[in-house]
Amino acid sequence: DELRAVLKDFPCAIEGGASAVHDLAALPDADIILVALVGVSGLPPTMKALDAGKLVALANKETLVAGGDIVMKKAKEKNLPILPVDSEHSAVFQCLRGQNPDEVGRILLTSSGGPFRKLGREEMVRVTVEQTLSHPTWKMGQKVTVDSATLMNKGFEVIEAYHLFGMPLSKIKVVVHP
Known about the structure:
- By secondary structure, the protein is an alpha/beta fold.
- The chain is about 45% helix and about 10% strand.
- The protein has helices spanning about 1-5, 20-25, 45-50, 60-75, 85-95, 120-125, 130-135, 140-150, 150-165, and strands spanning about 30-35, 55-60, 80-85, 105-110, 170-175.
- It has a three-stranded parallel beta sheet. Strands 4-5 form a two-stranded parallel sheet.
- Helix 4 links the parallel strand 2 (about 55-60) and strand 3.
- It is flat.
């Protein structure tokens, strides 16, 4: 209500909630929809955009982790590519443009190995929550920090690559490169 009051003299609409996000994803005047929502909340608007025939730029791996089969099936039905705009997958996408997927030997995703990469099994059992949550570079919230420290996030990126590039999992490799 405060925002509506402040912007009352401007030609814009103020909406909120999941239904507003779904409506935005299918705007008739939009050519491309950027989905950059947290977690699986990106899945419904991605499907709405594809249903409306919109090109989707995806900055949300969880959409494909949770619903990759249905997203990619819908994109294929609509003859629309999913454009990855998250750094590593965007770079892979650009490298693969114009390439025959059957001639691609593998996709390499890099990983720092996480903060515990040099620890042995005995040391790992003594890792604390505080150590796991103390990312040296980024402040990204507890869940993402834990996913990063445990390399779960890298697993999500492998699943994302599988769906985006149609490569078998056997051709998607993670290289630890601190």
